[in-house]
Amino acid sequence: MRKNYLWITCAVLLLSITIISWKSDNKTSAAASSSSRNLFENYVDELYQAANLSASGLDEAVFKKAVTGFINLKANEKISPFSSILTVIDFNKPSHEKRMWIVDLVNETLLLNTWVAHGQGSGVDTASTFSNTDNSHQSSLGFYLTDDVYFGKHGRSLHLDGLDEGFNSAARAREIVIHAADYVGEGSIAQMRRIGRSWGCPAVSPNVAGTVIDDIKGKTVIFINGNDASYTSKYLDEDLSANYVFPSEVNGSVMAKL
Asked: What pTM, to 2 d.p., does this model score?
């Protein structure tokens, strides 16, 4: 009986130690995750401030989404480890405002802020509806990769590939591209109090089209934001991006990478 009692006591003690260790590991893991998340949020805020993006009108919450996706795409080797260019388009803003930003994240610099068109099926001055369907003439939300430059009916243009299944994955088939359009710019705003609309392409002014294409061609990230509660993306996982940027601590110092 005494042996049985000792065996049971040892088993209970071992189980207790295992549970305590498991809880401790979980707490440590949760604390590390929380620390990485806080560091990531501070990191995005510092980028936002350093590039003076507030003065240009870019919403910080939208920028944070874009950076989150950019980092997750880098972590998944969808873009070059040396890539630093991120383009943000915010269709929550009306078309008469400059709502396209090209940012160099490594150099913490705003390269360009300009006007960009949305699809005529998405709304008049502000885009409110979005589609991944051909002939809808609507814009599509989400993350894109730029590809090659080509010459088409709008002149020198840039192919785009949508990365969010169901939201922009038909971009290549729909011929959604970056191209120049005469209806984008101050002249149209003076006449109509808004810029003209495309058939779904993020068209830009002929005055800046060459600069835009040259700055973002060749597998860089574009994030198009808009007011659509149904939009989701696997690239918006902040924990994954936080753990990628802040993977470890060495001698008490956080080692960040981008």
From this structure: 0.85
Q: Quick one: tokens of 151?
A: 């010459």
* Amino acid in position 176: I
Most distant CA pair in the chain, distance: 97
pLDDT, one tens digit per residue, over 204-216 is 999 999 999 999 9
Instruction: Report domain extents, the chain.
Output: 39-245
90 touches 75 (CB < 8 A): no
Can you list the alpha helix ranges (DSSP code H) found in the chain?
A: 2-50, 53-56, 60-75, 171-174, 186-192, 206-216, 238-245
Neighbours of 67 (CB within 10 A): 25
Tokens of 160: 């785009």
Question: pLDDT digits over 135-164, tens only?
Answer: 999 999 999 999 999 999 999 999 999 999
Place of tokens 């089209």: 209
Closest CA to 239 of 60, 71, 61: 71
The Cα–Cα gap between 157 and 240 comes to 33
The CATH H-level (homologous superfamily) assignment of domain 39-245 is L,D-transpeptidase catalytic domain-like (2.40.440.10)
